[in-house]
Specification:
By secondary structure, this protein is α+β, with helices and mostly antiparallel strands. It has an 18-stranded mixed β-sheet that branches. The chain is built from 6 helices and 18 strands. The protein has 2 domains: 123 residues, Diaminopimelate Epimerase, Chain A, domain 1; 123 residues, Diaminopimelate Epimerase, Chain A, domain 1 (Roll). It is 20% helix and 41% strand.
């Protein structure tokens, strides 16, 4: 079979920034092994597989090492491709059937908005290995559905992190670790970085799903429902966050940088 595939930079409005994702448009069902092999071949933090259903779209996400239950930037990239390639009308909302339920995407005048589940962190005692891996003393440690959240007191601490990735790979029961703190730049409400070596991603450039945890945390701390986060990876990216009860609305843009065909 052949399948169209696209390389998209998400959570950015310029190429070669934000977080790259591959988006593969399927014309028929494929096995999990085949999708995992494609994701390993693409070797990006996520490869999304989109299949047209009767009304909605099926969406699955794979890192080079495993399938995951939720991914923000590859969802944003997938919606961007469906609109730009004419599968969905410009003003039409897109509904994805996923392992995290129905996720809805819509266009505004300035961004694509993703309607995701809120995943507030529950304060917890961290494994000693987790603190040893980062060599920090967080002011708050919590755990969301997928990840640990460690909050520190300054952006400088976050930017200077050099975690022990080998130690992180051995910590079981989590997808990844979010490190967050207040932003120095007044344009942003908070900054973060995200590490998930056990999932095949040493550091993710911009992690939409992590903001399902960051949004509720910072909303409670700052007393705001609408915020802007900056992920301080090497590529960097901006995520607009709006907390609405048990949902988090994530906003960002995307740019297609390459398209081709799987043979």
């Amino acid at each position: 079979m052949t399948a169209r595939i696209f390389h998209v930079d998400a959570f950015t409005d310029v190429p070669f920034a934000g977080n790259p994702a591959a988006v593969c448009l399927l014309t028929q069902e494929q096995s999990q092994d085949w999708m995992q092999s494609v994701a390993a071949e693409m070797n990006l933090s996520e490869t999304a597989f989109v299949r047209i259903l009767a009304k909605d779209y099926e969406l699955r996400w794979f890192t080079p090492a495993m399938e995951v239950e939720l991914c923000g930037h590859a969802t944003l990239a997938s919606a961007h491709i469906l609109w730009t390639q004419g599968f969905a009308g410009h003003d039409e909302s897109i509904r994805f059937q996923t392992k995290s339920g129905v996720l809805t995407c819509k266009r505004t005048d300035t961004a694509i908005e993703l309607n995701f589940p809120a995943m507030p962190p529950i304060e917890t005692a961290p494994p000693k290995a987790l603190l040893d891996a980062f060599h920090i003393r967080p002011s708050f440690v919590g755990k969301s559905l997928f990840d640990f959240l460690l909050v520190v007191d300054s952006e400088e601490i976050i930017r200077n992190l050099r975690p022990d990735l080998h130690t992180l790979r051995d910590i079981r029961g989590i997808r990844g670790v979010i490190i967050s703190g207040p932003a120095d730049n007044p344009r942003f409400d908070f900054v973060s970085r995200f590490f998930a070596p056990a999932a095949g991603i040493d550091e993710d450039p911009v992690t939409g799903s992590a903001h399902c945890c960051l949004g509720p945390y910072w909303s409670g701390r700052l007393g705001k429902s609408s915020m802007t986060g900056y992920q301080a990876s090497k590529r960097g990216g901006i995520v607009h966050v709006r907390v609405e009860t048990d949902r988090v609305i994530l906003g960002g843009n995307a740019v297609t940088v390459l398209q081709g065909e799987l043979l």
